[in-house]
Amino acid sequence: MIEIQILRDEKERVITGLKKRGFTTERLSIIDQIIDLDDQRKASQTRLDGLLSERNSLSAEIGNLFKSGQAEEANKLKIKVQDIKQTAETHEAELEDIKQKIEDLLVHLPNIPHASVPDGQTPEDNIIHKAWPGDLPQLPEGALPHWELAEKYQLIDFKLGAFITGSGFPLYRGKGARLQRALISYFLDHAQRAGYEEILPPYMVNSDSAYATGQLPDKEGQMYHMEKDDLYLIPTAEVPLTNMYRGQILAESDLPVKITGYTPCFRREAGSYGADVKGLNRVHQFDKVEIVQIAHPKHSYATLQVMLDHVAHLLDALELPYRILHLCGGDMGFTSALTYDFEVFAAGQQKWLEVSSVSNFESFQANRLKTRYRDENGKPQLVHTLNGSALALARIVAALMENNQTEKGIRIPEILIPYTGFDFITLPE
RNA sequence: GGAGGAGUGGCAGAGCGGUUGAAUGCACCGGUCUUGAAAACCGGCAAGGUGAAAGCCUUCGGGGGUUCGAAUCCCUCCUCCUCCGCCA
Predict the structure, then answer these.
(1) pTM
(2) How far is the CA of A250 from the C1' of B23 (A)?
(3) In terms of Cα–Cα distance, which of A416, A390, A383, A242 is closest to A309?
């Protein structure tokens, strides 16, 4: 949630930024609406405070009158206060109404894109921040996409997953399952070496948490919701990890906070069909290791770069060809100020697949979370939050299988062999 | 799931319905003393809103209610502890 103060102080930047997200002049009027309502809120608050102040002092007086035995005087005042109370109730209702209106508008206002964010509405408008410098893998005649390899090598049973649960819930087995576990372990180990604390969080969150990180109300339909308990299955570890610091005031010396966690991720992804959703390309449940940093506002963009390097290192180690995209305003997530996406090339289907998204949310999430640090004057200030996938498994597995298919079988990258315990996935007996 | 108890400032821990936003202790910050440190002593130390400031308002797990006035009474929800039940 954007700070109203930013709307007031940096209106020009806000307007420029929102235009990048495709805001029309008409939609931009929301800014003035909010400022106007906030002015009303202040005036209303002042009126109410005045009444409450009067009520409080008269109540104290009543107390004193009773103590000194002047019951008659006290009773007179009581009637007066009752009157004030009624007026105050009206004002309070008015104030609540204004606050609610502000909240409703503010909640639907996305983060202001960073100055470097390119204009544009669709993924085609994203800019290639870093292209793959080498050649793309050349596969031999008869190379297969991963969903066929998965069947051939008996690594993933999509049909069985669909039978047990539904489409988009893959069942990994044998070396396929082992490969998942190997990747998770490797990613976590690498994060730990980079100084992140490992967290194993709950996989369901309450609505307060989902609101705080911005999944609600914007992405309501994309999460699985347990109605009976009003809990949501997490779409990403970002939600529980970032919420660890909801409402906290950190010491400046605590920054940066660096945490990582493996979790399954659940996404309803309603309305997606066709070739894009084949095999592992888009599923309802996948595994991911997430890295999260809570940073000093002064350092958050340097931190973003470090996180980018972290992800790049993992992909280099896995020997996967990748490129980095600088997302345009229209393709960026609601809460993000700047996002880089990593895509790996899956040679079996000749497609770039998104495997990581690294973002700086600046104070947008922190404002909702009320996560702050104390500055040198002891004043609480909002932190900046950042996160990135490091990495999302399903599509990594898809690319690994496709790119590494050989006559001998599917080759396992060097770095993973200690984790898998095998260097090739061969045809089943 | 059933019975009982409890939720107060960073922590510990007071708080007859009426200057209690909250005693006290610890922690923390500043100062005095000291060559320096420790100890001792003095002072400061919750968040939010509004305001130039003084001040005023709100907040004692969340929500609602009673009252002129609620941390203190009532209702409800949540969380934690103890016991019983069930259970990987």
Answers:
(1) 0.92
(2) 28
(3) A390
